[in-house]
Amino acid sequence: MKESNRIFVLAPHTDDGEFGCGGAIAKFIEEGKEVFYVAFSICEDSVPAGFPKNILEIEVKNATKVLGIKQENLIIKNYPVRKFPQHRQEILEDLVKLERTFKPDLVFLPSSFDVHQDHKVIFEEGRRAFKKTSILGYEFPWNNFEFDSTTFIVLEEAHIQKKIAAIDEYKSQEKRFYANEKLIKGLANFRGLQISREFAETFETIRWII
């Protein structure tokens, strides 16, 4: 990880990056690494009643600020939620432009085990666009039938607390059962237990270049 100084987090929807690797993001920023966050949809079609249509755009700005991501390193697209397969080519072209412009050392994206249709597109096209880059697939237990936990990032409690604080910025999503501090911390505890540490996040190793 010492050689990974420019890191990209690809989030199909706002908050996916926080759930999938929020602790790792907090750790990397603490270490002085440059982290970019790309959200491909602000999910206007699924915003709960009573909130403005752009609420998730506002919330992702607040959440990434909590994690320490620079405002200029947050890139927000507006592909329609649950319809990424129909926009596959446009998404690939966006990803290729990002690769050519920024040339990251490490990319985080949804894993190959993720069954959500939008997540699947970002995995498939992200792997294609960043094939010359190390890639880790992040974990979504509620979207996975199984998971290949081949890479672990050791975290401190402070990193998990920042992850929880970032997720707490999504007031429009707080009724979702997985937006739960106990669940988030418990999963980090469990993944830490697997490597005899207190906290960790785990990832599928999609490509690792040494």
What is the element layout, followed by pairings?
Blueprint lengths: L5 E6 L4 H15 L3 E6 L15 H13 L6 E3 L11 H15 L3 E5 L6 H13 L4 E5 L12 E5 L1 H11 L13 H13 L5 E9 L3
Helix pairs in contact: 1-5, 2-5, 3-4
Describe this structure in words.
With 210 residues, the chain is an alpha/beta fold. It is built from six helices and seven strands; from the N terminus they run βαβαβαβαββααβ. It has helices spanning 16-30, 55-67, 88-102, 117-129, 157-167, 181-193; strands at 6-11, 34-39, 74-76, 106-110, 134-138, 151-155, 199-207. It has a seven-stranded mixed β-sheet, with helices on both faces. The chain is globular, with a radius of gyration of 16 Å.
CATH architecture: 3-Layer(aba) Sandwich
Total number of beta strands: 7
Number of helices: 6
Spans where pLDDT lies below 50 across 5 or more residues: none
The third-level CATH topology is: Rossmann fold
SSE run:
EHEHEHEHEEHHE
How would you write the strand order of the largest sheet?
A: 3-2-1-4-5-7-6
Shape: globular
Mean of the pLDDT scores? 97
Structural class: alpha/beta
